[in-house]
């Protein structure tokens, strides 16, 4: 296993997504932050409170100035959000940009279930972040969200 074993790390994120308390109005998402070939933080939706997102939870466990973030990849089962319903929370895309994480790996893009036009991937790319999509793992990443309208 290496830092670049995207399948391994995304499967780890998928396992975390299975830990999410299931609710009707939100996706179950898992996230893993990897630096130097090692897992440095994890998170999943609703891990610490009913509104916390997976990427937010993982980032909250690290110091904002942790030097490893500048050479890390974050694996998220779903495209990071570009807007939040809870206005006092920073969208995950912005949190990733603030942290300086250069690589984001996702399994599927956010459908229009809750947000009409998520632009997380586009915003990350516009700001120089390398975004890698793993569509071959999308079904596994969506499996814990089948109770939602995934159109």
Structure, briefly:
The protein has 151 residues and is of the alpha/beta class.
How would you portray this structure in words?
Helix content is about 25%, strand content about 20%. With about 150 residues, it is of the alpha/beta class. Helix 3 (about 90-100) runs parallel beside helix 4. The chain is built from five helices and five strands; from the N terminus they run H-E-E-H-E-H-E-H-E-H. The longest helix is centred in the N-terminal third of the chain and has 12 residues, at about 5-15. It has a five-stranded mixed sheet, with helices on both faces. Strand 3 (about 70-80), helix 3 and strand 4 (about 105-110) form a beta-alpha-beta unit.
Taken from the alpha-carbon principal axes, the silhouette is globular
The percent range for strand residues is: 15-25%
Strand order of the largest sheet: 2-1-3-4-5
Low-confidence stretches: none
Structural class: alpha/beta
How many strand elements? 5
Largest sheet: 5 strands, mixed
The ordered string of helix (H) and strand (E) elements is HEEHEHEHEH
């Amino acid at each position: 296993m290496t830092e670049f074993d995207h399948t391994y790390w995304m499967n780890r994120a998928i396992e975390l997504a299975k830990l999410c308390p299931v609710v009707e109005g939100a996706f179950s998402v898992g996230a893993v932050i990897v630096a130097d070939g090692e897992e440095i933080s994890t998170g999943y939706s609703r891990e610490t409170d009913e509104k916390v997102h997976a990427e937010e939870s993982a980032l909250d466990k690290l110091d904002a100035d942790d030097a490893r973030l500048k050479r890390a990849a974050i694996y998220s089962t779903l495209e990071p959000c570009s807007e939040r319903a809870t206005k006092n929370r920073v969208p995950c895309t912005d949190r990733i940009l603030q942290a300086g994480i250069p690589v984001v790996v996702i399994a599927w893009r956010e459908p229009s279930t809750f947000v009409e036009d998520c632009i997380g991937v586009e915003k990350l790319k516009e700001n120089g972040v390398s975004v890698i999509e793993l569509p071959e793992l999308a079904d596994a990443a969506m499996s814990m969200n089948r109770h939602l309208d995934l159109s």
